[in-house]
């Protein structure tokens, strides 16, 4: 058993949870003390986009052809530096936000989404925003819903447990790059989705659906201050078909990792994937197929 401890840290075994009942799920219990205070505006501003962690997972072997995560070539409306982008600027959405965490001594930022669950406290994000894949779990993990240009209208929600597929935690398999955080109630004792709402989830769906993805891209030409989206029809990854992932036209960059994919053309749809990776020189964002293993992971998190 490997114990992880730090300020706002974690302490548990990165092994399958629930014994034989859920062999595909790994989890860690989080000590949230100090995590909210840790994330000062300065630390939020300087956090490194979490796509670098997905890139490291790919470099560790992961049965893949070479990839650079979440790098795109701009191509259609105006980005923050005047360059054209496919991604569209969006007003804040109450249940979509930024995820901040520490891993390997560095501070990172991803995106996430509150989803409806039995515990009213579950956030969906990327596996690489929860665990190194393989390696350490995140510490100082907070979810900031409806983040907008430094504002946190619903506060910072600290994690009390993190969940990911064992296939991600043990080998960083991009097929399973999804994670879930269960957050603590706020200072009033209210649960996350009672405050900000939440999205339904769907699993084992048909391939080739139309999706709208959301996130907070930070690498140029974006700056991480606001929410963006992409809409398109999903198709298989031709470079690494063994991942079973699907991609949509999108040039959101690092920082959008873990942002939700909704079936349909807006944020009212059910969530069915997350922003996972892309290739340098390509304007396509790939997300994992949410099948049985990711469903099992969500179920474990949602009822904890």
TrEMBL record:
Keywords carried by this UniProt record: Signal
PANTHER family, alphabetized: PEPTIDASE S1 DOMAIN-CONTAINING PROTEIN, SERINE PROTEASE
Source organism per UniProt: Arthrobacter liuii
SUPFAM superfamilies (UniProt xref): Trypsin-like serine proteases (SSF50494)
Highest taxon listed in the record's lineage: Bacteria
Residue ranges of the region described as Disordered: 1-25, 57-89
InterPro entries listed in its UniProt record: Glutamyl_endopeptidase (IPR050966), Peptidase_S1_PA (IPR009003), Peptidase_S1_PA_chymotrypsin (IPR043504)
UniProt name for this protein: Peptidase
Biased composition (Low complexity): 1-24, 74-85
